[in-house]
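Worked example 2:
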Amino acid sequence: MKALGESRKLGKGTHSWSFLDKTYNLKEEDRLMEFQDKTLTCTDCGKEFTFTSGEQSFYKEKGFQNEPTRCPECRLARRRDRNTHNRREKKLYNVTCASCGQPTQVPFEPRQGRPVYCKDCFTNAQV
């Protein structure tokens, strides 16, 4: 594993920089711009966190213009909340298979007069 912030010259005007097992190629002018660790305050929990020079360099390389406003823990919690919020709970309906008579569940509300099949009967009917 490479050391945090290790830099190597690749060729004219470009350096390779390692951060968290990833390697980024930085232009000479970006490398020369020294970053200092900053202490920021999380807008969600109010806890102070460090915006490291490596993270600042990463943000610069990716073109991000704003500093993070949340600590890593709150960012992760927000991402998890956002991902679980978009998923709807599937409502399952209890029905009886029109072919074999077995009870089964389907993810749609059956309409009157239309046959509903269990998974096995549906698969056999398609073949």
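Residues 5 and 101 are 66 Å apart (CA to CA). The mean pLDDT is 79.
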